[in-house]
Amino acid sequence: MVNIAILGYGTVGSGVAEVIGTNKKEIKNKAGQEIMVKHILDLRDFPGDPYEDRVTHDFNTILNDPEIRIICETMGGLKPAYDFTKEALSRGISVCTSNKELVAAHGPELIKIAREHKCNYLFEAAVGGGIPLIRVFNNCLTAERIEAVTGILNGTTNYILTKMQNEGSPFDEVLKTAQEKGYAERNPEADIEGYDAGRKIAILASLVSGKNMRYEDVYTEGIGKISATDFAYAKKMNSSIKLFAIFREVGRKYYAMVAPFIVDGAHPLSSVNGVFNAVFVHCNMLDDTMYYGRGAGKLPTASAVVGDVIDASKHIGTHIICRWTEDPMDVLDFDRIRHKFFVRCEKGKEDKALELFKGARVLSGADAIEFVFVTNEMTEKDFREKAAELGIISRIRVME
Ligand code: HSE
């Protein structure tokens, strides 16, 4: 039998206990031994909960219990999760986590501590919730050169964009309804501005390259400026608008960014709707492969944490190699990133627009109230300078 502890008995932590309780037999078969929740750390008490007798308010109870070999860190945030994780790993106790903030901020350091102490820091649940992704990058695609990763990594924004697309409603109205229904946080900044997806793509980028992509180096642009008019144009183009988190290798440099993109209806990611997440990976041998599912929620996220617990239980005393190091990634200067851009500007600017953006594909007809076009592929810097000279209403990057 392996005894484990859960740090944080909120949505995901209580989900971990539920998954272990519900799938007890399957888990025992797959782990080769029973997994038992011995302690739960939380500030609160949980009278009436089936695990109420295991709740402790003192982390040292867990740390000093020699029977605890694995900890599930489902507290979220950096403090005190960072200190607790370091202390546990330094004593050879494996940590399985759903904490994307901590993994993005300190992943390589915590992996190194785990390696030095022959235990594991596993974080399958930190990106894409229940969707298998970390193991895919660490194990399954290791024969590949991964050339591009494109993901919908935030359920809240995908839900909002899907509603805007289907109902033609403005952003503010859809966000308000999503908050009332509990689909969006009361403070939705991290989701809406792309910071959450930025942390997740930084983690995937680091696993692909083996070097550290700091989440601060991921350019992020949110969905707050996307309008019902943009969706009307996207519909005419047989396209949708998605918040993409992308990672690319260009020459010997890399970049990651999060931004809304107009994506052709034929692209597999264009039909990923609602709260679902998906990641589309282009490899040099396998070609394209895609992973889809629930990127958040109690049981999907807890299932990924428990999958890690089973893996950790089969590797007690051994470190599973994860090649994410502290070496900084060679990040491509943002100005040199190349895309096509969908542009809206006022009528009357046709000549100047086509002079600045030579070869642009015009989308608006003669009777349209705006002049609308898609540029050829160009650098961010070139686009920014020409758009400033023209004076535009808005622009969205295009993915084909
Ligand atoms: N706020 C996140 C989302 C939760 O909307 O996807 C899962 O990380």
Secondary structure topology:
Layout: E1 2-7, H1 11-22, H2 24-31, E2 35-41, E3 55-56, H3 59-63, E4 68-73, H4 81-90, E5 94-97, H5 100-116, E6 121-122, H6 134-140, E7 146-152, H7 155-167, H8 171-180, H9 189-192, H10 195-209, E8 219-220, H11 228-236, E9 239-250, E10 253-264, E11 276-283, E12 287-294, H12 298-313, E13 338-346, H13 350-356, E14 361-362, E15 370-374, E16 378-379, H14 380-390, E17 394-399
Parallel strand pairs: 1-2, 1-4, 2-3, 4-5, 5-6, 8-10, 10-17
Antiparallel strand pairs: 7-9, 7-11, 9-10, 11-12, 13-15, 13-16, 13-17, 14-15
The structure holds L-homoserine (HSE).
Question: What's a concise summary of this model?
Answer:
The chain is 36% helix and 25% strand. It has 14 helices and 17 strands.
What does this structure look like?
With 400 residues, the chain is α/β, with parallel strands linked by helices. The chain folds into three domains: 2-129 and 298-314, 3-Layer(aba) Sandwich (Rossmann fold); 135-294, 2-Layer Sandwich (Dihydrodipicolinate Reductase, domain 2); 334-399, Alpha-Beta Plaits. It is 36% helix and 25% strand. Strands 7, 8, 9, 10, 11, 12, 13, 14, 15, 16 and 17 form an eleven-stranded mixed sheet that branches. It has a six-stranded parallel sheet with strand order 3-2-1-4-5-6, with helices on both faces. Helix 5 (100-116) links the parallel strand 5 (94-97) and strand 6 (121-122). The protein is elongated and about 75 Å long. The relative contact order is 0.14. The mean pLDDT is 96. L-homoserine (HSE) binds next to helix 7.
